[in-house]
Design goal:
Layout lengths: L1 H18 L3 H22 L9
InterPro entries: Gly_zipper-like_dom (IPR058598)
Pfam families: Gly_zipper (PF26273)
Protein name: Glycine zipper-like domain-containing protein
Length: about 55
């Protein structure tokens, strides 16, 4: 999960700074979104954590 968050934060900061004119706002929003997406992606990539019926 930490690796997914790290990748998401890095991509989010880069994209956020490029999209928004104010770099501080772009980086802050990019990090928040990147961490959320990275965490969700890493959770979905591990099916053994899901309950099996």
């Amino acid at each position: 999960m930490a690796l997914g968050m790290a990748i998401g934060v890095g991509l989010g900061a880069a994209v956020g700074a490029a999209v928004f004119d104010n770099a501080a706002i772009g980086i802050a929003l990019g990090i928040a979104l990147g961490a959320a997406v990275g965490t969700a992606a890493s959770r979905r990539s591990r099916p053994e954590d899901e309950t099996r019926e």
